[in-house]
From TrEMBL:
It comes from Pontiella sulfatireligans. This is AbiEi antitoxin N-terminal domain-containing protein. Pfam families: AbiEi_4. Residues 7-51 form the AbiEi antitoxin N-terminal domain.
Length: 197
């Protein structure tokens, strides 16, 4: 029995990238016909999903993760995800490994930061959203990164995040100190941690 295009989409959780569709035997012409009939919708350039799936709960993060699997949500975007900021991100901040070239993305706006070694790999959590694995830095790694970028984000934003971390999260001071060391920010963070935590 021949596998239908819908069954192929369903086997991928309802979402397919163009190259995955092609490798599964769905031609570009078939994809465009499915789109024109309203059976699938374009999520972002080269990524399609079944039109009858529930709305995406976090479309910006899902879109970025589908296009850039190695990207890790960071800074204000990660603070917002962890609910330890009152800031509303107007772009998705991501960390990517050094020497990574990011393809063009029309939407959402992207703010990429190139990290290397442990600065990139430490503190990555994977959260499942709408059938997609989204990599996001832990609250502790995010706070350390925010202190590293304090001159760009503003001290008020960073201190507010530390206060909200104390109020809303199960404080893990050891992990916070570890991430401060990874980012070489322990001397900067320590006075704030002693005052707030």
């Amino acid at each position: 029995m021949k596998t239908t295009s819908r069954q192929i989409f369903e086997s991928y959780g309802g979402q397919l990238r163009m190259h995955e569709a092609l490798s599964e035997g769905i031609s570009r012409t078939q994809l465009y016909a499915l789109r024109d009939k309203g059976e699938i919708e374009l999520v972002s350039r080269g990524t399609y999903r079944l039109a009858d799936l529930p709305s995406l709960s976090n479309p910006d993060l899902v879109t970025v993760s589908l296009r850039y699997p190695k990207a890790v949500v960071c800074l204000i975007s990660a603070l917002s995800f962890h609910e330890i900021t009152t800031q509303i991100p107007y772009e998705v901040s991501v960390a990517v490994p050094r020497n990574t070239t990011l393809p063009k993305l029309e939407y959402p706006p992207l703010n990429a930061h190139w990290f290397s070694g442990q600065a990139y790999s430490s503190g990555i959590e994977t959260h499942r959203m709408d059938g997609v694995d989204v990599q996001i830095y832990s609250p502790e790694k995010t706070l350390a990164d925010c202190f590293k970028f304090q001159h760009k984000l503003g001290t008020e934003v960073v201190v507010e995040a530390l206060r909200l971390y104390k109020e809303r999260k199960k404080n893990n001071v050891q992990e916070l100190l570890k991430q401060a060391q990874v980012r070489r920010m322990q001397n900067v963070m320590m006075p704030y941690m002693e005052a707030v935590l």
